[in-house]
Every structure is written in structure tokens, then in C-alpha cells.
């Protein structure tokens, strides 16, 4: 690894990445550039500026990426109905490639030779950051302090912070025992009591949603309008992707929607327990399937269903910027041209219930054929006999052979 | 088609199949044998005997197939986590092969040359019955009256019934406007207002579950014990498969669990709206995924996820008795040897929430590795660098080539 | 089915479709329009005009579709490396959608209400013609005489021809005992002694290629230039798609290349024996894989390999004009942007041997990394340890659990 | 890594692994146990004993594993019709897990705490050895000298050998410029001029087969008898798996069969050029597909085809001892119960031509249905109409919707 002169750090403004900023300056004797993004985590990003300045950082990038995140990452992924391992809506996974993309773009701009991040050596995020970065800037150097340093306990970190005059904010109230991550799509919790998969997390852990028990006793009805597989309006009102997600998070969270508690398989080879709140995402997945149910051809839908687990795995593992994810996306996007219409949902104490779907332009639901009543010849029931007979032919030939044995 | 002498009819005891029994006698001048099965539909089957006798049927088969249904059909399917089109738990689909199997077994026993059923020419059930029958008795003849006769309206049917002295029961209260089908796994609703996919069904349609709104305001906690992927005990008490399902239907229904409202793609080529109540199934799917989450290898789980849509489609389309379904089952069953342990669930107003999973014998969740705390060397974070570097290699080589253009 | 006034017939000019033309006029009392296409079958199409006129046909369409066939059907299919059941290069399958497309386009032009073809009721071609037609003109009526009439033996056909003054050409020499079909991609043989899958066909059956035994004893070397996955030049000389195929058929056939003898599974449910000569196709498949081997990303290539059997099945079954084939094509075509370069092949007595592949612009083969010699740090062998360790982690955890039992 | 006391080395008897044996003794100050296996590489293994003794090795294992290799590794893989990237028959890949298995079994027997092998840090073999070992003995330590030492050139190795009195055999004749690996399934060549993928290897490289040009001008016909997907007899004579392979290598090689020249994608992320001779395997793959073509159900065959690339990738990447490979094997093996019969092949100058296949007990080829002649009602052509109509229904509904736009 050649000498590092300048490194762009994904900087949250929090204690850990502040320590990293200092450590990079000391350890590598290099200039540090910070990059802080608002991707809907729900915290102010501007305070990161003063903190960075206090550490002598000269080049400070602070950006609002919420629309890009929603439009170019979250929405395409929801066209795929992506769920990892039947449960996880990929909230953390989908944010990493965007951060990686901006890190290397900035690195090119400021002529840095390295990037750095605060992800640990046990998790998926290091993989997602670094695969994204390498795919876009193949000769970038990556510094992952958690894999290098010996500050491997809270105590050592605190000592380092104190020794280097890094402000340790004492947030009001108790410090969360959980490791958390948030963006427009979700907030996640790991660690603490969750390390025992038999233990139920206490109610106080959850931050974005009320418990179903505490949600309103009256349901909320909403309508979502789709164009080419993407939501373009809520209750008839056109909104940008990020606004839609923010609104759905609010409405969903208020109705106790989007909590998930699961054990997942990390790309690095271990199982880990995570809890997630994904109010908008939970609504979006259900609604997207509903609008597809009346507009998408059967075999297109089934092909999507068979490709989905692979797509989700690619996103989870950090292969967003890969030819294979792009190939799948091309197939999926091709199918979405006809996914236009409106879905009506009932939200009630944790439940997302589809109560209606319609599409003037693209509905393939043909009442005149499907009806239990007289269809006036729209469908010839006699066709079914030949259909069944030929579908059965191979099974009958094989059965005769077995009988003959 | 050669002359029919004796036909075995799948006989529910209801008006439609009673008319079919009469019509077969008249039209084919053949002997009719009735077969009525209890597969957990929740209605008495014994009354079918007197009705059949009243029509002059001499050979009457009435059987309780609930355990066989749960053990040999529903449970193997749930090992696959099967869902059709992201929503449908295959409640009707999975019952048909069993009926087909018994129909042809009886046909062989009584030396009948044909079987008959009451499924229409527009639906999936005709396909499922007939594919099942042909696969097991390749030269059986199948009579599907709905594809043959001209009794294609309620009025004509009623006239036929009256004319032939077939008792039309006037069930107390209003007749349901829906076409329904029930067994241990679910009850389904089609037709009526559901033919408009934008219309929300009225609350009175649902029969097996209370509305989430009317479910208890206190959650119910249950524990399910798994052996080789199958539930063997509820709250620590060993039970047979059918008993478990009956119990979970009761508990789930009381907590507003298992309603689904969807538009599905039929094998015969049309879209159709259906509503389903699947209380036990909804709980079983969630719980099975949870026990797999700590006991199943990652790649085994992912392979199952990728094969699942195909498995579900095979069941939906009626290919239960096919070499390809059996091949998939062999792979799935192989994976389930280690799926042993206990899942704890919280049921609350429509929500099935996993709150704990454990497996003394087979948990692959290794706290010492996954921990956020010091792992004492169980996992070497430095390994991650090489892992990422080699996973990135192909992406980097390609990126360099693009840069050089 | 409503009354037919005008029907467009896929007319080869041969005896069978001449009989059909007459039969349609008689049976349906309708006007018949003929459509005859040159898709490279190697016979003159112009003579069909006089024959049609002799039967009183007024609207006669004769078209040269060779370039459209090669460019829009064969070439896209070869981007997918499509092979059905590990052996069959889909020569017949890929021609049918084009014929169907032109049939319905002409039907619209001449305001016909029906189309007709000469495919039998046992084969795949009826399915391919009709699925194609329905997908493009959903309310077209299809007349498939072989499924309707009672001319089900050679004798009856001959009698009918004689009775209606249809000229029976006595081609010079012996009549082939095989049913044959030819186009730019292949010639096929079915029937005759081939109906016994244990019987080896006599050498005289084959028409497009010499036997390997009779091919030159000196190899032929050729170079094929690829752009975006398609061949654009042969031995450095730019050529149109159809010209390339014609040339490769000539060169391949002369070197004994492209014969195949197999038993395949038809969509209608039976197995059938077929023999095929596909000289150009056999060369193109091998060469395309070779150019992909140095230009395509590993995971893109593997995804293509996993999707290929499904793509081939769709083409075989006649679903060319379907959303699912188009989705797969979108994914495949996306991957081909980088498939540029040259492949060098040695053709010798039935063998197609790749002896070189290169791509100035897009080769991902990096000698400096792959070398067995000192790579000067291009690849860090130490990375492999971490790569292996983390790939092994889940296997080790599971093995420890098994040991503990 | 804890202290190593005893290590089992995969020892070929050649220079490289002799140097490793010495280096391990010196570097780790540990006892070295050698393991040398005959897996059909075509060289004597017994001479390894004296060489090991000369270096002071006390525990020396020399084993003939040919039958186990053929029966438990090669044959199961050929049931899957496995080919990697459309070309490679996995000759090296399939041998590694067996060596890994014996290494750890011996390690357990002799109470060694580590294993060692001579694979480099750039290739797939290190991965295959180590994944296999970790899966069977999770806490084994692995020493991969090529990733550790600084003997990274031929010169340094020679110097080390000389310095430590390791005999450098001067094989008669010219030393091969290629890196080679051989076993019962194949011999492989890498390096040298092959590092340029545009260069054709000289004829003298190939060792197991004659050039097609030099093969006999008379074809050789053989018959292979299959039971449950495995070859059990050659030309009617029952033989053990390893014997069959040895015979087919001889016959195939004499007829110029089984050469392949390709660029493949390694698991570690780079492309590499390899040439292979796989005479028996090339014949076995073609023959297995042929016997399946008449005995295997269509959908079982298609499912196998879709799973095959994944299976091949697992074997290539070294995941033989993994739950997912075992799941796929369970599905594949389930399908092979009916794969019984005889295949007749013509071998001629590089060509493997199937000329007949038959199966008394399990042929699904039904001449009475498939015939072009009158089938006497075995198949009702009218069924095809309904079959096509319902297969087309979804396409027609969608086309109508598009028309209405």
C-alpha cells in the first residue's frame, strides 16, 4: 500500500467517526476530508461542520442526498419486491452504495488517494462500502480503522477521545444500549439484549413506530398512485420520492407498522440478530405487489419472484454496482412499464391491508372472463379439457411405464 | 372415450354435487359411487350418506382424512415456506391432490372406469384434480360436468334439482353471495362483489377470524416446537399435525390473524380476486422461517428461497404428483434435518410477531462470534480485508478497463 | 367462432399447403391469401406464385425475410447461448414467431379475419405459430386444418389432391422418407426410421453437411469479429447477419460440422426423435462463448448460464412474443455491450475448436494478475487467506455444532 | 494461531511438495506426516515413500483412492451433467474435496493439529482444499506455504532445494513449460504460452489424446449401460467406476476426444486460460444426456438443467461438502432412479456421436404417440386447440389492453 496523502472519511459527526478522523491524522499523517450526508437519518447534519472544523479539517462536504437516495436506490429496489431471507427490507444495505459513490466522487474531486469509513470488521457494511468504492474507483485505497487499530473496547475509545480532546457529547437521558443505523428507509438495532435470540426486546428500544397496542383504534385509509412501478402520489397528491417516503414513515409509524425482529445471515459468514423499523417500506412492498397483481403478466410476475431472492442477496452483499445487479434491474425495469394505477390500503395497528387496486390503462383483470356468472362466451370452458390433457400427457406416459413394471 | 360403467364422484353432500350425481346417472346411465372426505372443512360429512342413499347410490365412501392431509400434504409444503405470488398460502391447491389420490384409489378398489368432480371449467381445481388423477391412474376417464352440460346458470340448476327431486336445503339466514372452499388450512371466498378488485369486502364475509379491530386487546403468546421442520408441540404439549392446525386456527382466528385479499393468476390464464382466511398457516409460515433463521445454513436457506416460487407454482398448478415437485421436496427435506427448536410468538390483532427462537441441538447463532463486545479472538477482523479484496477483484479489473477507454 | 371471410395462409408452395389452400376455399367458402417467405430454406419461393394463382388465389405475398430473420431473431437468441435440453439449437423454433408476425401483419393489411398454417396437431409448431399470432392480434381466428379435417393419411391427401386437380410434383429421384424443415439456421429431420431411437440414421439422410469422414483432411481456420455480442465480420470482412450465416453454413457444412441426433421433449407432452444440421449455429455458439469468456464479467456470465435454460424453453415453447422472454432479453442484451472482439476457430471434421480470442477494448483477461510468474504485486496472495476463512465460516460453525452432538 | 506440533501434508513426491515438507519442518519445528494418493494421475505413488523417508518423515500414508474418487465424487457429479461456464468438466475441482477429506481424516487419526498443501495463493485449489478441510474439521489449522514464504520464484526454490539437499530429479527430455494436474478425470495445462489467450498451444502440449488429425480413420462404436444414472457396463461388460473411466480415457484419447481450450473465471476473481484433456468425461457427459433423453420426465430434465450451473459453480468453488451441494444432489439423485438403459456411441476423430439409446424398463419414448403415421387414437389432436388457447389467454388479454390504448 502506497503512502496516503489525503483521505475522504464518511463522517457522521458522532464520537466514533470523530475518533477516526483524529486517528487518521495521527496514524497516517495525512489530510482528512470529511463527508457527511443527510439520507433521512433524522438528525441534523450541519453540526458535523463545526466538529470537523474543531479537529482542523479543511475540506468539509455536507450534502442532502435524500432525493437521490429515494429515487435512484430505494425506488428501483422496490420495483424488484426485494426482501432478504423472507424478512429483511434491506434498509441499511441500500444506503451504502450511495455513500460509497459520493466518497469516491469526492475523492476524485479533491484528489484524495484513499477513503475511510467507520464500519467494523465483522459486519456487512464494510463490504458494501468497499465493493462500491472499488467498483467505481478501482485503485482507491481503503482505510478501515476498525480492522487496523487496537481500540477494540469502549474504554479504549473513550480514553483515546479524552486524550485527544474529542468532545464526548452526553446526550440527555440514558444512552441506548443498541447499535443503531437510520436512513429514510429504516432504523435498525443490533447488540445489547438482542444478542440472545430468545430474548424479546423491551418496548423502549423502538423509536420510529408506536407499538401496535398504542396505535389508534381507528384505521387509516390511504391511496398510492403508481407510474411505471414507482409511487408518484399519496392520496392523489403528487410528491417527490423522498417526500413520499417521509410521509409514509410518519403515517406508518403512527399506525404501528413496520417493526421486524429477525436473525439474518451476514455475508461475512455469521448469523446476527437485528430489529428494524421500516414503516414506509413495509407499506410500499405490500402496495407494489398489489398494483402488480392487476397489471403484470403472470409469467413476468413469476420470473420476478424467482429472480428476487438473488437480487436481494446482491443488494445485501454489497454488489449494487455490479453487472449482474444491473442485468437483473434491466429485466425488472422492462416489466414495470405497465405497472400503473392506484392501490388503496387500510392501515391498522401494525396491519397493512390491501382493500382495492385499479388501473384504467393497464389492468389485466378481465371481469367478463373471470366471472362466476354467465360470461357470454368470453371463455370457452371446453378449452380446459385439452389444456389439462396435454399438461397431463407426460405424467400419464410415465405412469403407464411404472404400471408395466 | 369408451363407455362408462361406474364413476367415483367427489361428493360434498351439497346441492351442486348432488345434481352432478343425478346427472351422471341420467346422462351416462352409469353407476355412481360417492366419496366424501373430512379434510377439516368444518362441516359434518356423515349427512352426505343419507343424501347419497336417497339418490340410490349404493357404494358410499366417507372418510376422515384430516391427519393425512396435515401430515403428508400441508406439513411438507410448509417446509418449503411456500407462498404463491408473494401472498397466497395455497390452501385450496394443497387439498386437491389428496382428493384426487383417494378418488383413483377408490376407483381401482371398486373397479370404476371414471372419476368425476364438481369443479368448473374456468378454475384451477379442475386442473389439480385431473392432473393428480392422471398421474396416479393414467387411463382413468374424467367427467367434468361443468365443462359438458348446459346447466350454466343458477336458475337452470335449480330447475334441474326440482325436476329430479333433489333436496335444496334452505340454510338458516341469508345465503352467502360468495363461492367458498374450506379445509384445515383455509377458507376461501370468490365471486360476488370481489369481482371488482377495487371493492373492499364487507366484514360479514369473513367466517374464521374476527376482525383485528375485534380481537382481544391483550396479546397471546405461544411456543411452537419443531422437529425436522415440522411442528410437533404447541406450548410444550405434543400434538398430531391436524390437532396443531386446528388449535392454531382457533388461536389465530381469535386474534384476527390470517386474512388475505388478493388478485392471483390462475393456471388457466386469467386473473381472479380471492379472499382467504388462513390463521394456522399464517402463524406456521412465520414461525417456520424463524426456526430456520437460527438452524439453517445461509446458502441452504438461500437455495430454498430461490426454489420456493417454483415449488409454490407447481403446487398451485396441480403438479403435486410430479417428478419435479418430488425432486424439490427431496432437496427441501434434506435441509430440514437440522430444523429443530422452539419459536416463541406474540399474536396480537392480526400481527404474528416472532419474539424468540432457540435450538439447543442445532442453533448456528454463535454469540461469541456475532457479539459487538470483545469476542476474544473468535473472529479475526483482518480476514475481512482479504475477503473483500478478492470479492472486489473482478469489479476492479472491469473498472480499470472502462477507465482506459 | 364467427364466420370466416378471408384467411391468410402460410404457404410453402408444396403439396400439403396447396391442399390446405384448396380445402380452406371449399370448407370455409372464404377467400384465401397466401404468404410465402424466404427464410433461407434453400428453395426458390417465386414458384409459389404460379401455383397459388393456379388455385385462384388473388392476393399473394412472397417475401425475402432472411435478413430480418437473422438480425432480429437468430442473433438475439445466440446472445443468450440458447440450447434446449443441452443439445438442440432451436432452429425450427426461432423461425415460427417471424412467420406468425408476418401472417398477422398481412391479415391486418388485407383485412382478413383468420390465419391458417400447415402444422400438425402433435407438434410444437402449431403452438409457436398460434401463440405468436394471438400475442400480436388477440382476436385473430386460427384455422389449423390438420386438427380439423379427416385427411389423416398420405392416401387420403393424395386422393384429395387428385380430386381437386392439385399438381403433385414428382421430384426427381427418391422421395425423402423424413419430414423436413429448413431455414437459415438449420434443416431438421423427423419420422421414418428415426421413430426408433435406437436406430442410427443412414448417411444419405443428411443434406447440408458432409460426414466428418468425408470432410477435408486439412483444417480450416476462420476469424469472427463480434460487436455487442453479434458477429459483424468473417475473416475481417464485414457482412450482414444473413450473409454471415449463409457463409458459415457453407464452411461448416463442408467441414462436417453441426449434425445432431437427439430425443427431445415437446411442449405438447411427448418425446420425439429429431436429427438436425446446424453448421453456422454450431460455430456461432462456440465462438460466442469464447468471446464472452474474455469480455464478460464472471457473475454476469453465470447469471446468463442460469437463465439460459429458461430462455431456451420459452423459445422452444413458442413464447417469443411474451413479456417474460423480453425481460430476459433485456437482461441479456444489457450484458452484451462489452462483448466485442475477435475469435479464431479451427474447423476440422466435425470439430469446432477455439484457438484464440482477443479484445482490445474489453478484455478482462489480465495477464499481469493471472501469471504463474512473479506478478510484481498485482495480486496479494495473502488476501486469499481471509477470503477462504470467511467463506468457510458458516461451514465451520455448523461443523462445530455437529461435533458437539 | 496456536503452536503447530504435527502437520499432515498433501505430498505428491515432486519437487515443490518436497520443499514444502522440509520448509514445514524448519519453519514450524513440527513433525510432518505425508499423504500421497493415487487418484488416477497416471504416475506411480510408491516412490513418494522413499523420498519422504529421506527427509526424515516417519508417518507416511500412500493410498489408492481411484475407486472412491470415481464412485463417490465423479459419478455423482456426472449425474448432474455438470459443466462450468459451458465448457469445463471440473476435472481438477472434483478431486480436491477427496484429498481434503483424507487429509483431515488422517489428521484426526495421527492427532495432527494442522494440514498443509502445495496450492498457490492465486488459484482455486487452495480454496477447495481449505473449504473441504474446514467443513469436516472446523478447528484444523491450515498451512499454505505459497501464501507465507518468500520462495516466490523458480530460482529461490531451486536454491532452497539445493541448500537442503532435496533431490531435484532431472526427468529425461525437455521439462514441460506448463503447470499440469492430472487424475482419472482429466489432465490440465496452465501457464507458458497459454497466458496469451490468442495463442494456440502447440500440439506437443497434449499428453492424453492424439490430435483428431491423427486419430484412426475408422470410427469406434461403444455401448454404455446405465443404472440409476451411473455407467455400470462398457460394451456389455460390467466394470467398476474407476475401471470404466480408465477404459473410456483410453478409447476416447485414441480417438482424439476430450480436448478443451478455454478461458475460465476463477473463484478468487481473475480470468485464467486452461487447456484440458477429459476423454472419459466428454464421452460420459454426452452419453448421460442421451440416456436421460429417453428416460427422464421433461420437467425433471428442465429442472436439472436450470440447477446445473449452480451445482457446477459450487463444485468449482470448492463447496462440495456444503449443505447446498447436498440439497442439490438429493434432488438430482431422486431423479436418477429411472435413468436406466443403454446408449450407443460412435467415436470418430474428436467427435462423440450418439447413434442410439434404449431402455426396456424406463423409456418414456412412446412411438405410438409420437409417430407421424396414424396413431390409432393414442393422441387426440383436438386437445391441442384448448392447450394453445389457454396458454395464449394471458397474452391475448394483454394484447387487447395494448390495442385499447
From TrEMBL, chains A, B, C, D:
Pfam families per the UniProt record, alphabetical: Arginosuc_syn_C, Arginosuc_synth
Residues annotated to bind L-aspartate: 120, 124-125
Record InterPro entries: Arginosuc_syn_C (IPR048268), Arginosuc_syn_N (IPR048267), Arginosuc_synth (IPR001518), Arginosuc_synth_CS (IPR018223), Arginosuc_synth_type_1_subfam (IPR023434), AS_cat/multimer_dom_body (IPR024074), Rossmann-like_a/b/a_fold (IPR014729)
UniProt binding sites for L-citrulline: 88, 93, 124, 128, 179, 188, 264, 276
Localization (cell): Cytoplasm
PROSITE patterns: ARGININOSUCCIN_SYN_1, ARGININOSUCCIN_SYN_2
Entry GO CC: cytoplasm
Domain Arginosuccinate synthase-like N-terminal: start-end pairs: 6-166
GO molecular function: argininosuccinate synthase activity; ATP binding
UniProt EC number: 6.3.4.5
Annotated signal peptide: none
Top-rank lineage group of the source organism: Bacteria
Record-listed ATP binding positions: 10-18, 37, 118
Keywords of this entry: Amino-acid biosynthesis, Arginine biosynthesis, ATP-binding, Cytoplasm, Ligase, Nucleotide-binding
SUPFAM superfamilies, alphabetized: Adenine nucleotide alpha hydrolases-like, Argininosuccinate synthetase, C-terminal domain
Transmembrane segments: none
Pathway the protein contributes to: Amino-acid biosynthesis; L-arginine biosynthesis; L-arginine from L-ornithine and carbamoyl phosphate: step 2/3
Residue ranges annotated for the Arginosuccinate synthase C-terminal domain, each copy included: 178-397
One of the protein's GO biological processes: urea cycle
Reaction(s) catalysed by this chain's protein: L-citrulline + L-aspartate + ATP = 2-(N(omega)-L-arginino)succinate + AMP + diphosphate + H(+)
Coiled coil: none
Family: Belongs to the argininosuccinate synthase family. Type 1 subfamily.
HAMAP family per UniProt: Arg_succ_synth_type1
Subunit structure comment from the entry: Homotetramer.
Protein name: Argininosuccinate synthase
Organism: Thiomicrospira aerophila AL3
